[in-house]
Amino acid sequence: MAELLIVYHSRTGGSHQMAEAARAGAAEEITTHLLTADETTPEHLLAADGYLFCGPENLAALSGAMKEFFDRCYYPVLGHLNGRAYAQMICAGSDGENAARQLARIAQGWRLKAVQDPLIVCTHAQTPEDILADKVIPEADLQLCRELGQAIGAGLVMGMF
Q1: Which of the 8 DSSP states describes residue 70?
Q2: Which residues contact 29 (CB under 8 A, 6 or more apart)?
């Protein structure tokens, strides 16, 4: 039975909402585990058949907690995840492109297979108050997250990846 692991970090709630929406979509298709970056271990990665990584853009880069997850888990699983499917979602205040590139480079090192372009949801938070405020992701964007979760889940179950 195929399994999808969704790993996320969220400080102001945006990425958490996105990850939960993706989990809801994926759970219709596949056994799905949703874990924070802090609680995810190399063993979780090894047990999964595919991955959905979701994190915020902070200062034009991947959040520190997501980066720490990758730093902590990178070498223990290196060479053991080759060819597994992954997708990513970025909750951004501006464009999110640099965070997505950074995550893609890490995934490339693990030799994961990107199965979709990054899904970037822009909150347009540009002032200190807006950046630090709790986020509310619009339903249309949450629907895209659900669809991404469902698509990667269905693809894993069908053996497309």
Answers
A1: H
A2: 150, 153, 154, 156, 157
Q: Are 8 and 36 in contact (CB under 8 A)?
A: yes
Q: Shortest CA distance to 104 belongs to which of 114, 90, 119?
A: 114
Which residue in the block uniquely carries the two structure tokens 């090192």? 109
Q: pTM for the complete prediction?
A: 0.97
Domains of the chain: 4-158 (3.40.50.360)
> How many residues are given for the chain?
161
Q: How confident is the model at residue 111 (pLDDT cuts 50, 70, 90)?
A: very high
Residue pair 149/31 in contact by the 8 Å Cβ criterion: no
Task: Give the orientation angle of helix 139-158 with respect to helix 14-27, to 10 degrees.
Answer: 40
Looking at residue 1, what is its pLDDT? 86
Measured CA to CA in angstroms, residue 104 lies from 31, 108, 110, 137, 139 at distances of 24, 6, 10, 23, 26
Strands 85-92 and 119-122: parallel
Q: Where are the alpha helices (DSSP H) in 80-138?
A: 97-109, 128-132
Q: Report the Cα 112 to chain-centroid distance in Å.
A: 13
